[in-house]
TrEMBL record:
A GO-annotated cellular component: plasma membrane
Protein name as it appears in the record: Urea active transporter
Keyword Metal-binding: no
Membrane topology: Multi-pass membrane protein
Organism listed in the record: Aspergillus tanneri
GO MF annotation terms: putrescine transmembrane transporter activity; spermidine transmembrane transporter activity; urea transmembrane transporter activity
Cell compartments where the protein resides: Membrane
Transmembrane segments: 16-39, 59-79, 94-114, 135-156, 168-187, 199-218, 295-319, 331-350, 393-419, 425-445, 452-473, 493-515, 570-590, 602-627
Alphabetically ordered keywords of this record: Membrane, Transmembrane, Transmembrane helix, Transport
Family according to the record: Belongs to the sodium:solute symporter (SSF) (TC 2.A.21) family.
NCBIfam families (UniProt xref): sss (TIGR00813)
Coiled coil: none
Subcellular location, principal: membrane
Length: 723
């Protein structure tokens, strides 16, 4: 009956919604313009094609972890996890979080292998092409682009639905306006912009989740404590028990439908991680020794976000709704979280939700832009259209790719809205479409035997099998093929499992029928960086000064990095397998098998652990990146202050970072002190000529020949050459 359905009216004005979408988008773009200018002026970071796509391959583990958390925190992370909590109870948040964090942890192993096998690659697909050739390359381009299209469609459909529900902004308008600010700051800052804005977005999302959690479990007049929430869930279980749950309770891990969702979630998310070039982009951008810890920290920290968010918002929606239930359409559209937020905090809850979803959509969308632009630039344009293209041309292609993809996806998401296909449907469908390429793609980096026939055929055969399993099951279950029948749990389960597991059979069979390849990985190592000398020349900067662009190599450094990567590869396999066993077996299976229904004390402890875990996440992805980058932050800030005071050389943007003095006779060194890379190239403000050797600089008296260039030796070490 209509009276039994909860009505949800937009609590915010359309003007507020447009202000958030457009105003915040342009604000982030302006911030990134300033940061890009500062990095160019004070740290010689020019937007070459290498810098745009790889950030100089020098990002540290804390910022990698923050970027992974932000990129993996889609609108669906917050909205879909709350929806499954609303439908299945306390098991839903755990099944969502554990079913989506193990892929990030396992991906750490692939990240290490990519850094070892193809240290100069710009995309994962370049490694595919180097090993197998054009046919396999084209197959994986299609699957990777389908992944990016599905993920971006989910972001825009989910984000626009929430904007419409909270502010009344038209869904189609939101689909077209949300990408604008993201495209602007991505164009100016490249992947470095996504790392920096990902960090900012992560901070906002974590703060909002803390606000929700402390409101529901500490300060709210209706709820306000774990005990009251527990009592409300017990009452809800009696009022509308959950079919398939132990005792019909919302307070148990024994949930039949929740378990089915867990498997679908687990299988589908393998595709969206292992086939999303955005995650390979971040692995490539990471410093070689920081890729593995960055992904492990990111995976463990991310777990707390959907777990606590859904355990707060999905559960609060159940506790606060009474006899009026949300409609299935609203639940599928992801409106459980905004419903709970408005009921918990009123107007403030609506504002917090709008900000949080905006951050989740835009941060993940920027990662998709870089992923797609990298594929179109390096795997299509440079590979098949203009192999001799230099940096300036490739940067232009990257920019055009970002703009084109944003326009196409805005139109596609709008079409999905008018077709009645929402975020929840796409979330369940994605594994059916893309997961058949997961196994052959991973084996490219870890199994030398897989041949090109297996690599090209098994994804296609797996896709055909998954579509058949999905549609046949839907027809058998419901008798008709509609959005509702194909979106049910059992058809999606059949399609997802078939997609992931069928290539596990196809690939070995095809490999041994046609003969193993016995690949030596040398062609991957032969991948070379782009020639960005034209971009550096246009910026009047020595190419050697731009991070990640140095052409001089250091054999000892490379050997040491390889040794570290080899050790990390060994550790990663052991550690990731152990953590996967914990998240998928040791923690959930005993609770599922025993049909345990939470007691009041156990539920309280469950909530407290979730809050503590989010505090750990805060340290891992908010505090730790600042600590790792403290020297660079202090140095840049100091340089900006001195520059503003007129005490720094005016030629700091790469032309000559030094004061020039008349030539004279050198005198002995007076003092030595340790100095890092950027100090070595920005010593003009010191007012003296300096001789730079290794990782020390020595003040010379009184009149020395002016330095003419700084040449990188090894990481964070420069030598200045004198005439």
């Amino acid at each position: 009956m209509a009276s039994d359905v909860a009505k949800f009216a937009a609590p915010l004005s359309q003007g507020f919604g447009y202000g958030i979408i457009i105003g915040l988008g342009f604000a982030f773009a302006l911030v990134m313009i300033f940061i890009t200018w500062a990095l160019k002026r004070y740290q010689h970071e020019v937007q070459t094609s290498e810098m745009f796509s790889t950030a100089g391959r020098s990002v540290k583990s804390g910022l990698v972890a923050a970027a992974v958390v932000s990129s993996w925190t889609w609108a669906a992370t917050l909205l879909q996890s709350s929806a499954v909590a609303y439908k299945y109870g306390i098991s839903g948040p755990f099944f969502y979080a554990s079913g989506a964090c193990v892929q990030i942890i396992l991906f750490a192993t692939l990240a290490i292998e990519l850094k070892r096998r193809a240290p100069n690659a710009h995309t994962f697909l370049e490694a595919i092409r180097a090993r197998y050739g054009t046919a396999v390359h084209v197959v994986f381009i299609v699957f990777c682009l389908m992944t990016n299209i599905l993920v971006t469609a989910m972001l825009l459909t989910g984000g626009s639905a929430v904007m419409t529900s909270l502010t009344g902004v038209h869904t189609a308008a939101a689909c077209f306006l949300l990408p604008i600010g993201v495209v602007l700051y991505t164009l100016f800052g490249g992947i470095k912009a996504t790392f920096i804005t990902d960090y900012m977005h992560t901070v906002v999302i974590i703060v909002v989740i803390f606000i929700f959690a402390f409101s529901a479990y500490a300060t709210n007049d209706t709820l306000g404590s774990p005990g009251r929430v527990y009592d409300a869930l017990v009452a809800a279980s009696k009022l509308h028990p959950v079919e398939g749950n132990a005792q019909g309770s919302y307070l148990t891990m024994r949930s039949k439908e929740g378990g089915i969702f867990w498997v679908i979630n687990l299988v589908g998310n393998f595709g969206t991680v292992f086939l999303d070039n955005g995650y390979y982009n971040k692995a490539i951008a990471a410093h070689p020794v920081h890729a593995f810890p960055g992904y492990v920290i990111g995976g463990l920290c991310w777990f707390a976000i959907p777990w606590l968010c859904a355990s707060t918002m999905g559960i609060s929606a159940l506790a606060l709704e009474g006899s009026q239930r949300m409609s299935s359409e609203d639940v599928t559209a992801g409106l459980v979280l905004p419903f709970a937020a408005v009921n918990l905090l009123g107007y403030s809850g609506a504002v917090c939700t709008t900000l949080m979803i905006f951050m989740a959509v835009t941060s993940a969308f920027s990662s998709q832009l870089i992923a797609v632009s990298s594929i179109l630039t390096y795997d299509i344009y440079q590979a098949y259209i203009n192999p001799s293209a230099k940096g300036k041309r490739l940067v232009w292609i990257s920019h055009m790719s970002c703009i084109l993809f944003a326009i196409v996806m805005a139109g596609f998401a709008t079409g999905l809205y008018y077709a009645g296909i929402g975020m929840g449907y796409l979330y369940l469908l994605m594994g059916v479409i893309i997961s058949s390429a997961v196994f052959p793609g991973a084996m490219t980096l870890v199994w030398k035997g897989q041949n090109w026939i297996a690599a090209s055929s098994s994804p296609v055969l797996g896709l055909a099998m998954s579509l058949i399993a999905w549609l046949v099951t839907a027809k058998k279950e419901s008798g008709v093929l509609t959005v509702d029948s194909t979106g049910a749990n059992y058809p999606m389960l059949a399609g997802n499992v078939t997609a992931l597991l069928s290539p596990v059979i196809f690939s070995p069979i095809l490999t041994y029928v046609f003969g193993p390849q016995n690949y030596d990985y040398e062609s991957m190592r032969a991948i070379r960086k782009v020639d960005d000398t034209d971009v550096a020349a246009a910026a009047h900067i020595d190419i050697e000064l731009i991070p990640g662009e140095a052409t001089m190599t250091n054999a000892e450094k490379e050997e040491e990095e390889q040794r570290k990567l080899n050790r990390a590869a060994l550790y990663s396999r052991t550690l990731t397998i152990g953590m996967v066993i914990c998240f998928l077996l040791l923690w959930p299976i005993p609770m599922y098998g025993t049909s345990y229904v939470f007691s009041r004390k156990f539920f309280t402890g469950w909530v407290i652990v979730g809050i503590i875990w989010l505090f750990v996440t805060t340290f891992g992805v908010v505090v730790f990146p600042l600590y790792e980058g403290r020297k660079s932050i202090i140095r840049t800030t100091r340089s900006m202050v001195l520059d503003a005071m007129g005490r720094k050389s005016r030629a700091l943007d790469g032309q000559k970072g030094y004061d020039e003095s008349p030539s004279g006779v050198a005198t002995p060194t007076e003092k030595e002190e340790v100095v890092d890379l950027v100090d070595l190239v920005n010593l003009g403000h010191l007012g003296d000529p300096w001789e730079l050797v290794g990782n020390t600089h020595s003040k010379l008296e009184p009149e020395e020949a002016a330095p003419v260039q700084a040449v990188p030796l090894v990481e964070d070490e420069y030598r200045v050459l004198y005439q």
